[in-house]
Amino acid sequence: MADTSVRIDGNTLRLPGGVTVRFIRTLRLPETGTHPLPPGLGEFPVRRVADYADRVPEAMRARGGVMLPVYLREAMWLNFAGTAEPAALQVGVGKVCAVSGRPWSDGLSRDPQNYVVLPRQPWLDGINSGTGTVRQFVAVPLGLGATVEGQVTGEEVWGGVQLRAFPLNEKELAAWRAAERRREQARFAAPPAYGAPMPGGPMAAPGGFGAPVPVAAPPPSTGGFGVPMPMAAPPAPGSAPPAPGSAPAAPGSAPAAGAAPGGPSRAPAAMGLGVGGSMRQEVYQDDRPLTAWSRQPAGRVFVHLVTPPEWHRITGEAAPPSPVDRAAYTRAGLPWFDYYDQDAEDLRAPDTLQAVKPVGDWLGDDHEPWQPPAPGQVRPLGDAPGKPVEDGDW
User: Fold this and answer.
1) pTM (2 decimals)?
2) Exposed e or buried b for every residue in 256-290, given b needs 16+ CB within 10 A?
3) What is the rounded distance in angstroms from the CA atom of residue 190 to the CA atom of residue 186?
4) pLDDT in tens, 113-146
């Protein structure tokens, strides 16, 4: 029987069907103009809610899933690198679809499309907001009306991020796997071109389809778009993959030794996602018929956003420091990125998401002066282990 559980592997979420999601910290963009893709500044640490059931508020415990710490007005993007097989992934922000702008729905739809197609969509930095653009995901507290949820639905109830993955149906998946086997056999059967590395040799490119191509390798200390910076958060205590044949950790296991007592659970300053600046990124239109996908999801997970003080109270861990400001990053000559897939078609942005206003309308202008990257800093990019996560009622 296929495994239907979502698992956490370090700071990576692994949904059934081979879907891999990491949450990446990044620089805030100005809320005017359209910009290249900002760099990654390391992973957000991710922990299971069930591991801290006696410290989290009842609403979090009831919804299950995972949590991560985020600063007010901090930006993030979702990295799907490592997704093994085709999947349709629904992404909700406060249970509003980040692709269609419609309320969260149980099934896939095509008109409008309410999912991204993996692994073709290598990442998602924000809501689908215009032709070839998205508006950056930015954390804001609930209650101001600044979240996407508040602006689209008129209320702020859910917050956080919701993910649900649908695999190909059995017939389509079998056909895709057979085609992949034939492609691999042909690749290894053909003699390599003169001067090309042997298959599997030291120069073989890492990652699968959708992984960034290292056109010009950045300095070792910088990483690339989709590659964590050295300040990447450590994995969860005790989160190393289990030994072969061992049973997965039981949900609700005790937190790591040395964690702060935390005290009784209380209502935290709940966080959701609003939008910031605009950047050049396409949300790709699905080129398969809707009938190619399974009618039932393989798995889903609720991702709670908590403030750094609340994170420390619950887990006993200090949240990673706030990312370096963008002016310092630009002065250091570190890279920004452009990505374009000429064979894919951009998905039209719905009117509801085009009308969402940036968080600066509520929280004021950013105090940091904007320093744009120099032309040479913008780089073009070429064309289930772990512990199970408990789901809840949402």
Assistant:
1) 0.70
2) eeebeebeebeebebbbbbbbbbbbbbbbebeeee
3) 6
4) 999 999 999 999 999 887 889 999 999 999 888 8
